[in-house]
């Protein structure tokens, strides 16, 4: 059942005001596939725009904090922690993992997914001049914890 519909069937923001505070956490990931030379350029720090991983990490963190401005009906949240990590996967990909935490009344899955996707888009933006054929793939939620529904982990 979709919970973002009111009794008349119209989209609305769900009222979470009566829900108890709970520690909540979500982990999401994305993958960016590229030419092996592009990954080597990033790893060697030879990119003209600077440290690609550092800029993508900051972009992901900033995006998580602004998720409610980007995703309609998403609650604005006071995140207590956001981390974005980028890992080179030889020979031709970068895996991005974004984790968000808070003590709140609603989950942080959208914040983690937004962080991973914006970090991937930033990596693409910084490298598109040398590799316009990069592919952002596998954006997904890996796990979530806390709240009424408890823990969930992606299969495989």
From TrEMBL:
The protein's Enzyme Commission number: 4.6.1.17
UniProt keyword annotation of Lyase present: yes
Metabolic or biological pathway, per its Swiss-Prot or TrEMBL entry: Cofactor biosynthesis; molybdopterin biosynthesis
Pfam families listed in its UniProt record: MoaC
GO biological process: Mo-molybdopterin cofactor biosynthetic process
Reactions listed under catalytic activity: (8S)-3',8-cyclo-7,8-dihydroguanosine 5'-triphosphate = cyclic pyranopterin phosphate + diphosphate
Keywords linked to the UniProt accession: Lyase, Molybdenum cofactor biosynthesis
Positions of the Molybdopterin cofactor biosynthesis C (MoaC) domain: 13-147
Positions annotated as active site in the UniProt record: 125
Residues annotated as binding substrate: 73-75, 110-111
Gene3D superfamilies with a match to the protein in the record: Molybdopterin cofactor biosynthesis C (MoaC) domain
Transmembrane regions listed in the UniProt entry: none
InterPro entries, sorted: MoaC, MoaC_bact/euk, MoaC_sf, MoCo_biosynth_MoaA/MoaC, Mopterin_CF_biosynth-C_dom
Keyword Lyase tagged: yes
GO molecular function: cyclic pyranopterin monophosphate synthase activity
Job of this protein: Catalyzes the conversion of (8S)-3',8-cyclo-7,8-dihydroguanosine 5'-triphosphate to cyclic pyranopterin monophosphate (cPMP).
Similarity remark: Belongs to the MoaC family.
SUBUNIT field: Homohexamer; trimer of dimers.
Family matches, as NCBIfam families: moaC (TIGR00581), PRK09364.1 (NF006870)
UniProt-recorded name of the protein: Cyclic pyranopterin monophosphate synthase
Species assigned in the record: Pseudomonas mangrovi
